[in-house]
Amino acid sequence: MQIAIDLPNDFVTLQSTNEIKQEMRLSYALWLFKNARVTLSKAAELADLNIYDFINACKKNDIAVIDISKDELLEEIADML
User: Fold this and answer.
1) Residue 3 CB neighbour total at 10 angstroms
2) Residue 59, in any domain of the structure
3) Buried-exposed string 4-38: b where 16+ CB fall within 10 A, e elsewhere
4) pLDDT tens track for 31-73
5) Can you give the pTM of this predicted structure?
6) What domain range includes position 49?
7) Which is nearest to 31 in space by CA: 17, 12, 47?
């Protein structure tokens, strides 16, 4: 599916069309993932990144990839033992 949006010309001259497209895909993927609308792998796919690069993008944007507290993690580990 394609979605078209109108951008002011002065924004478009700052970057190439491909750069704008990539940034918009990444921004939307980050938003969807942050709001628990898609999985990590689906968000990476939407952003056209491998999962490791998407995790790095999450880190740069202060988006938690693992949503578990230290105590919850320790409890999970203890349950496995």
Assistant:
1) 6
2) yes
3) eeeeeeeeeeeeeeeeeeeeeebeebbebbeeeeb
4) 999 999 999 999 999 999 999 999 999 999 999 998 888 888 8
5) 0.79
6) 9-80
7) 47
